[in-house]
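Please fill in the sequence for the structure shown.

STRUCTURE ENCODING:
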């Protein structure tokens, strides 16, 4: 079968690889569409160590059921599906309480050395299959994965109603968080990013204030515009400068949810956190139940503003190259397989 294979930093090519075989409890999915995640781009650049070549990336995908293992029930050949992108054991202490995102034996499609869905076919455990609503096409369905990340982040923050919210980073996750907190009744939503095109999208999606810290004193501007301060911040980049930006702008006893996952080690002002009683929470991907819960949200969000282009699998190498450019105006690319 055809697949987009990662061979090393900046080396990704369409190749022929062996078609996967399914086990008794698995489903073979003919992939229809697969989104390119920011983490895939980081993997392509070789800066995270979370893509071990040669391998196939891709964890945001939809498709059609091609064949079934002997012990699979309640799924039919031809079903339109979206896939929870992590295998989980169901036996560890975290799985037993529903935290499948923290499973001790977890593996993720398209991460490390596990092949993902930038290919014609992928074998998936039956538990991971979710039928796609008729009202959602294959392209929009690929947004369920990042939407679920955003959903868990907002859920982790707690009460959003009538709160002043700061979102640092207007990438796909940040813009999805924006839409969810808007639906949740946030009072004022401020978005910070160094990319003006993304800030324009944020405004169109309902952001009240969009600021570029490269040329504006955003702390002063926010203090002037929001006298009662920012009570909840979402850090959706994962860099030292953006983490500190979020923490410094929060009012006393504010909550910051860390969603970004770029730099492994950062330096923060511990006294700032302790003396102002800031609350910091980390959130990582999502549980299978949150994945299911996010389907109803999927039909209420605007993906058209975020979707830059849809390209065939064969144009994947060019798409990765373009996304990796610092000055790229592209936000989200979906591969049609």
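FILLED IN BY: designer on duty
SEQUENCE:
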């Amino acid at each position: 079968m055809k697949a987009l294979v990662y061979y090393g930093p900046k080396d990704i090519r369409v190749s022929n690889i062996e078609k996967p075989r399914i086990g008794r409890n698995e489903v073979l999915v003919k992939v229809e569409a697969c989104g390119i995640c920011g983490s895939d781009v980081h993997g392509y650049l070789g800066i995270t160590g979370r893509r071990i070549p040669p391998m196939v990336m891709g964890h945001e995908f939809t498709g059609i059921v091609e064949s079934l293992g002997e012990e699979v029930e309640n799924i039919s050949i031809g079903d339109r599906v979206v896939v929870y992108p992590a295998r989980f054991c169901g036996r560890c202490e975290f799985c037993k309480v529903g935290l499948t995102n923290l499973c001790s034996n977890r593996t993720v499609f398209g991460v490390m050395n596990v092949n993902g869905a930038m290919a014609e076919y992928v074998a998936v455990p039956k538990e991971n299959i979710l039928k796609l609503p008729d009202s959602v096409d294959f392209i929009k369905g690929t947004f369920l994965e990042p939407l679920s990340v955003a959903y868990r982040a907002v859920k982790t923050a707690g009460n959003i109603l009538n709160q002043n919210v700061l979102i640092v980073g207007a990438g796909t996750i940040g813009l999805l968080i924006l839409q969810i907190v808007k639906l949740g009744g946030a009072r004022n939503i401020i978005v910070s990013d160094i990319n003006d095109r993304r800030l324009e999208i944020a405004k169109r999606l309902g952001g009240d204030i969009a600021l570029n810290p490269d040329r504006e004193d955003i702390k002063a501007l926010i203090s002037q515009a929001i006298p009662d301060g920012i009570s909840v911040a979402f850090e959706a980049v994962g860099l030292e400068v953006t983490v500190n930006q979020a923490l410094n702008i929060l009012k006393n006893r504010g909550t910051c949810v860390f969603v970004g996952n770029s730099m492994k080690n950062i330096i923060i002002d511990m006294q700032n956190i302790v003396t102002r009683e800031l609350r910091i929470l980390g959130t990582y991907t999502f549980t299978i139940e949150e994945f299911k819960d996010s389907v109803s949200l999927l039909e209420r969000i605007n993906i058209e503003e975020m979707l830059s282009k849809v390209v065939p699998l064969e144009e994947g190498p060019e798409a990765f190259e373009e996304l990796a450019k610092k000055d790229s105006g592209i936000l989200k690319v979906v591969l049609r397989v």
